[in-house]
Design brief:
Replication Fork Single-Stranded DNA Binding Protein; 6-stranded antiparallel β-sheet; 264 residues; alpha+beta; 25% helix
Length: 264
């Protein structure tokens, strides 16, 4: 099993720490996992994380735009004092959702810090790190407070016991091998959500160039940009609810080795 994604995340976390730098799904929710204040959410990570830079363009409050920013643009955004976020996205199973599907959890190190700390410390009998999104991963309980200023939200995340994938969960993972057969279903029911496609920053370059050109050299124009956007807000053209509430069909149960080939 490859732990490359989590190893990279751990490496970046350690770099940030040394430099001193440091944000309840329901059966009706769509693509993104929502963490609601004052509630507990039980999730299971699946697969590898993806690193993303996110900026919300709210010049038109009624039509806010979520931009995935290539790394080469980061300094240009920060030079204009624009609120750009370093986020981590990963597939999760929302245990509170009656419908079995994958969702994207998109948060910062205040969620993933404890996960990485455990990943760095806990090893299996062969001395290898245990992949949080692999067959031997655990469920996690996430809770948050509910402050008036959402930017002050504090999270608590606690690991549960080892939680192997169920037969139905393995069947859903297996759909990723033949995704074209399930294209009529919402994205989260087609198998593992392809994060690299969702967060392909190259698709946003034209919009970003137009945005920066309009701002020009006036750094104060950033005052028009809201910092109050909740992390993990949906991208409108990717959401959708399932019309098919039938359970996932159980194929022949996958071995851990088969799961690794699909997940990693």
């Amino acid at each position: 099993m490859s732990n490359a994604g989590w190893d990279k995340l751990l490496e970046e976390s350690e770099k940030s720490s040394k430099s001193g730098s440091g944000k309840k799904g329901s059966g009706e929710s769509a693509l993104y996992m929502k963490i609601k204040g004052g509630q507990k959410h039980r999730v299971r990570f699946v697969g590898d994380p993806e690193f993303v830079l996110i900026f919300w363009d709210e010049r038109d409050p009624e039509h806010k735009k979520k931009l995935i920013v290539p790394e080469k643009y980061e300094q240009r955004f920060r030079a204009k004092k624009l609120a750009i976020r370093k986020q981590i996205a990963i597939n999760v199973i929302d245990r509170d959702d009656e419908k079995l599907r994958f969702k994207i959890l998109e948060k910062g190190m205040n969620i993933f810090g404890p996960v990485l700390a455990r990943y760095a410390e806990i090893k299996d009998k062969d001395g290898k790190r245990i992949h949080p999104g692999g067959p031997n991963g655990e469920d996690w309980i996430i809770t948050s407070d509910n402050p008036a200023d959402k930017r002050q939200t504090k999270y608590t995340i606690v690991n549960m016991d080892r939680t192997p994938f169920s037969k139905e969960e393995k069947a859903l993972i297996a759909r990723g091998k033949e995704r074209e057969e399930y294209e009529s279903l919402p994205l989260g029911e087609q198998g593992i959500i392809p994060l690299k496609e969702i967060y392909d920053s190259k698709k946003y370059i034209e919009q970003i160039e137009e945005f920066l050109k309009e701002l020009g050299s006036d750094a104060d124009s950033s005052e028009r940009i809201s910092e109050e956007v909740e992390e993990g807000d949906e991208v409108a053209d990717l959401t959708g609810d399932s019309l098919d509430n039938s359970p996932v069909e159980e194929d022949a149960e996958l071995s851990d080795e088969d799961l690794d080939k699909i997940l990693f």
